[in-house]
Design a protein that fits this description.
By secondary structure, this protein is α/β, with parallel strands linked by helices. It has eleven helices and eight strands. Keywords: Amino-acid biosynthesis, Aromatic amino acid biosynthesis, Lyase, Tryptophan biosynthesis.
Length: 251
Amino acid sequence: MFEKGSLIPYLTAGDPSVEKTLEFLLAVEEFAGLIELGIPFSDPMADGKTIQESHYRALRNGFKLDDTFRILREFRRHSSTPVILMTYYNPVFRTGVKKFLGEAKASGADGILVVDLPVSHAGEFLDAAKEEGLKTVFLAAPNTPDERLREIDKASTGFVYLISLYGTTGARDRLPETAFEFVRRARKICNNKLAVGFGVSRREQVEELLKAGADGVVVGSALIELISRSENPVEELRRKVAELSGYSRAL
């Protein structure tokens, strides 16, 4: 789904609007191996304060699930950069698994990550994703045992998403040593590519994770925070993603 050494920017759909999200996607796609587009949800339990607030801003402005697909369809008119949708299971269940995945595929999504769907309960989801030709991505935490990590790797057809730390999303000044130990352990077990997320906000952190064996690194909260406080978010977002990707010298 992405080249080794890729940066994977995360953006929340509809924060602060449909039109701005499309501008943000187009600003980062040049430097992204893959884009993760989050669907706003009222109880984003895996996310920290920064991304929670982005979900609430979008929902408060009247953002609906169908708006996510509308953004993606418009983005596909301009870019072929792979996109995975990140969501919680409630919107998938309420829509219907087959209908949700069918609309995701039709709008141009390449894969789906359902944060709170464990592999052991993902049978219907996996069958529907395979039928639609969508890649699946599952999360693994630093304390995930080896045997369960093998199950997660087997169920993932896109990549395995390694959580770098214990806790929720949110930029950290330093990543714990357990993050790098986890990457090295997963590298020995998983056949899929590995992307690491949660807590990453700096280029040196991206480089350290890639050096430890990650194929891609996800950055979310640092970008969402930039968007929320900037007077020129499109240009600042582009520069930040370029810097995180290692392309800053080319600007």
